[in-house]
Design brief:
Length: 152
């Protein structure tokens, strides 16, 4: 007879929940008709946090992806008029990425889609349950300072 593994069950629930969140957010973003993928929407949100246009390398670091991935995302967003490449005023070899007016509009719509997705996901919870969940999520997000190294 095997002993139940509560952490294993929690891990599976967390993975299933994460997939559900991504699926619902993707559907809401697609319903906006912006032609923006979830990864592109993440790049738009990241760009909005910079005070001045960042370099591709800055974006790659912030998004925790390889620079080539950022290049592909920027290419797609630039083709849709959401971002543009601009030369660095102090170093002509450096290219920076900035939001266009169309990109700011898309970002606003993406934020609305994400709020709608959150409302759908949280709908079964009472206000008290939402408050508890918020506290638990804060604990998990701010939790451990060292990444886990265990496999299996």
């Amino acid at each position: 007879m095997t002993t139940p593994d509560p952490d294993g069950l929690l891990a599976e629930q967390l993975l299933r929940f994460t997939r559900r969140v991504h699926r619902i957010q993707k559907r809401h973003i697609e319903q906006c008709g912006l032609g923006v993928t979830p990864a592109q929407s993440r790049l738009l949100r990241t760009l909005a946090h910079y005070g001045s246009p960042p370099r591709m390398a800055d974006l790659a670091e912030r998004l925790e992806v390889v620079p080539r991935a950022v290049t592909s995302l920027v290419d797609g967003l630039e083709a849709n008029g959401k971002v543009r490449r601009v030369p660095d005023p102090t170093n002509r070899r450096v290219i920076r990425i900035e939001l266009t007016d169309e990109g700011r509009k898309a970002l606003s719509e993406v934020r609305g889609a994400r709020r709608a997705a959150a409302a759908e996901i949280l709908a079964p919870l009472t206000a008290e349950q939402r408050e508890v969940l918020g506290g638990l999520l804060d604990t998990l997000v701010d939790g451990g300072t060292e990444p886990g190294t265990r496999c299996g």
